[in-house]
Amino acid sequence: MSHRSKDILTGPRWAKVRALLKSMGHSDYDLERPLIGVANTFSNIVPGHFNLRQVAESVKQGIYQAGGTPIEFGVIGCCDGVANAHLGMRYILPSREVIANSVEIMAQAHRLDALVLLGSCDKIVPGLLMGAARLDLPAILVNGGPSLGGCEFDGRTSDTTSLAEAVGMLAAGKLDQAGFAQLENAVMPTCGSCSFLGTANSMGCVTEAMGMCLPGSATIPAVYAERLRAAQNSGRRIVAMVEEGLSARRIINRQGLENAVRLAMAMGGSTNLVLHLLAIAYEAEVSMGVEVFEEFSRTTPHVAKIYPAAPPNVPDFHQAGGVPALMREILPLLHAEAMTVSGRTVGENVANAPKSGEAIIRTMDNPWSTQSGLAVLRGNLAPDSAVTKPAAINPAMHRFTGRAHCFDSEDAANQAILERRIEPGEVVVIRYEGPKGGPGMPEMAMAMKMLYGQGLSDKTALITDGRFSGTNNGCFVGHISPEAAEGGPLAAVRDGDLIAVDIPGRQVNLEISQGELAERMAAWQPPPPKIACGYLALYARLATSAAKGAIIPHRAD
Question: Which of the residues 469, 481, 513, 545 is marked catalytic?
Fold first, then answer.
């Protein structure tokens, strides 16, 4: 196969380009081989990316071994945990578009022949995949892997979310300062993406289901030697993909995306997956909307149970067989003929996948629940859609009706929870936190965790046009669309209104008449923008609703 890098490396006209590359030590031998971009999101502020410098070295070894020349470059990556519950969280979802743009710019500006994408965390993995789908070059993703779990706390292996729960316990007098300090030092003993099934590890798993990383690689813990071997194998494989002409859109297509949605439903992945898979579909020019999630939520059993749905964490899931074992169990629901970066089909990859017992991964005949782990709701509060995660909600709370307690910002809600002003039986409403209103659609993770810590997770509900962390549990509904800032019905809710959440019925409703709702909306005035300049102001002007993936559209269609 011809290499597009030769367009700028062959003949006297391109001597300057060769000279620039030779100035860094590249030889004529190096420049005769395919140039493989290694997009590395390493930093020492994101635990899930802290090991990517070492992982990148293994990837580059594999590229050299297979006859390619690695060209490494940096890409930004933010840590949701560090950014959570303050202004920084508003930048997290919008950073996804910057990452995709960076990958596109670097690959196109330098005529790279293929890409190895290194990233582990929440918006970074989808941003990398969006860039790959947009470019349609041979591409493979290598994640850094999950961290190991921490000390025992509250009946399970702890992780960073245990601290958010402990804040609520501290406020409620259930934990003292000494115990809190000990917990802080023991919840995350290694680097890696946080060990629960949040968005980071959910995205790693659906990337494998989609076919964009090597089979079995998504859940290898960050500190395992196996992680480096998988990286080296990926480096060798990307060179073969160049020679085979196996480009990203042969994998990120309708079949691959539907396989990703199925896996998300079967394992109860993060609600953020809805946003990200819709965004990746847009970049791959695949027509896919929330209706796929609606359909699959009704026809996919909940087969694998991982925290926050149950005590086991992602390293436990890996030991139980990981993604290949789960995919083998749900193979009748998958497109077995879908192509993957391995050069083999999904069916071929998982045919002999081993599984260790049924403590985490069950069969379709004996699932944890016949209802999938994620669900799409509608109703007069969410005409376009809303998203929830039944896998992380006590079944007794799948239907809940309560009085609204309204907040026009996350900060106001968190302050009220800390001051213990939320009563059992209330529905906490947090609005003006969507893609445009936030701006940036921040997570309401802290609010849910504090409610849990105060013993209110099974006595209250929380609904929002913002997002949730994949680790949240309790009765919650997010991504309410249209959002309040665009005149969605959530803007009309008043303190004391009855709100009914009905997950089995796929409904979330404000219990007032249609006439009263229309009258309230006629009197509504949009609030002024929270941020008037910079990237967030630009994102607020351009972003679509959560029902469309909260993307920045860039095509004429």
Answer: 469
